[in-house]
Known about the structure:
This protein is α/β, with parallel strands linked by helices. The chain has helices spanning about 1-20, 40-45, 60-75, 90-95, 125-135, 145-155, 170-175, 190-195, 225-235, 245-250, 270-285, 300, 340-350, 365-370, 375-395, 405-420, and strands at about 30-35, 45-55, 80-85, 105-110, 115, 140, 160-165, 185, 205-210, 215-220, 240, 255-265, 290-295, 315-320, 325, 355-360. A 6-stranded mixed sheet has the order 11-13-12-14-15-16. Helix 11 packs across helix 13 and helix 15 (about 375-395) packs antiparallel against helix 16 (about 405-420). This is Thioredoxin domain-containing protein.
Amino acid sequence: MKTTRSSLILILSIIIWATESTGADKINTVLELDESNFDSTIAAYDFVFVDFYAPWCTHCKRLAPELDVAAPILAELKKPIIIAKVNADKHTRLARKHEVDGYPTLKIYMHGVPTEYYGPRKAELLIRFLRKFVAPDVTVLNSDSAIREFVEEAGTHFPIFIGFGINETVISNLAIKYKKKAWFSVASDFSDDVMVQYDFDKIPTMVSIHPSYNDHSIFYGPFEEEFLEEYIKQNFLPLAVPINYETLKILKDDQRKIVLTILEDESEEKSRKLIKTLKAAASANRDLVFGYVGVKQWAEFAETFGAKETKLPKMIVWDGSEEYLSVIGSESIEEEDQGSQISQFLAGFREGKTERNSISGPSLLGYIKSLIGVRSVYIIVFLVAMFILIRHISKEEPLTVGTRDRDQVEHGTSSEAESSDYRPGDKQD
Length: 429
């Protein structure tokens, strides 16, 4: 009897030890994956963040220590996120299978389903960003301080939706559906100060917040799922959207036409005044997206729509294709009474008083596919020039062709990459 009891205790101890030792919270370093363990790792853990890298890639080398810092912290979350890496330059078949087309390629696998990651890469911001994927679908807030802490913890990379006086079940389905794109919460208890802060005067109310743009909008219903979903989809972006690589990726999934205003410089006082007027127009015309871009901020994109040929600011309507519409009689916006001019532009567009123009650059999808930017063109031109030079040298001195020339090409590519500016979301190599 004593022996049996000892055996049971021993077995229970082994089970407890095994359970504790195999928990995801024990994996506090970056895992190295290949063909032999990739699928089993993705299947074993609910959340796996994978860095597909190349050993020679400058930007991959820069990212590696950030992942080393983030790995133990993400492993300690209530729902742990495992960080792993794959040498895609070595395991090419695995890389092709997972559609890796540049380095680094970052993906988070949630219950085995991959989502490409375009967020920040510094450890602190990376941790905050990834927490979004393991947070509750809907967070219940029961005090002013809880609301404040939720907004602060959410950060600035996703829009935030707070339902004041709304039951959690009303938005739960939509919160699950759009979890990858926004934070969702409901506030069950709050003061009049919060109502003043977010500028609403009755409940139930849904408020969307864009912390990075200091922008928010109010929705008073109806709260049937159809109408609530339309509001959520229209508010993934702020009322007036600055056009850049990140917002273009979001606009790819938006079916609305873009009313695009081209400015000299977004940061000028007169531009900020116009942007404020655009927000008012956007609030009254939710069937359209209102965007703006400064020539100083992104000349290549602005000049696609004839920015050099027209007095700025100018407005056009674009659906993301290789053509855009200009409104006859509204080629540019004067500094006085801009609200009336914008109204006139919109009226002309809706009445069909437009002319079609061809853009001089790629379509919306084309811009998204060219995320690596013009720097890659320089690299390609450099490599082609080197190739021509090598061929020329090889005709005169055949014995010199080989390792030395390969080193020159690799060194040239690396130098170009090292000198380029880093932009979150890019695959630079």
